[in-house]
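Annual report, structural modelling task.

Input specification for the methionine sulfoxide complex:
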Amino acid sequence: MTPNITASTASDKAEFYQDLELQIQGVVDGQRNWITNLANASALIYHGLRAVTNKPINWAGFYVLDQTTESLATDSTTGQRKDALILGPFQGKVACTNIAFGRGVCGTAAAEKRTLLVKDVHEFPGHIACDSASNSEIVVPLVLNERVIGVLDLDCEVTEGFDEVDQAGLEVVAKILVEACDWRGVV
Ligand code: SME
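The model returned the following structure:
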């Protein structure tokens, strides 16, 4: 099915996020495959936000729960399984592929089950620099039945690239996507 989605003509960010919600509802309509929906959501977020904010956003995409990477998903001292993330659909440059819960901004947001709005990544202990051009970041967990099943991650080349408007908008997007997809292979 080819979705009929028009580009956002929003003039400010709050309006953009209202349009984005509708656009995402549009692309997921009749489609529950998580890879497909996260791929289209990445494109809508990345291109839409760059156009409306003029901020140099350089990455937008997803990491999802990884069921396969034993080395990261096993605690070296206790031998117990730990959750880990693996790179999912995104827009932007090549990114690191595996992130353990508790590591970096993504793994910390996943472990703490809360959005992390990082105004300057150089001040975040353990930040994982996939692209040295990134200076700020926002990570929103995807939560299904109380469990973190992935994260939505955005990077920006300037400090303070994201604010509370982005946080509110992206948290709604994350909820829509969690409900809109079948998570076969992830959970
Ligand atoms: N900076 C992230 C890693 C992922 S990339 O930004 C795409 C982190 O610290 O978890």
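The beta strands are 57-65, 84-92, 98-100, 116-118, 136-144, 147-156.
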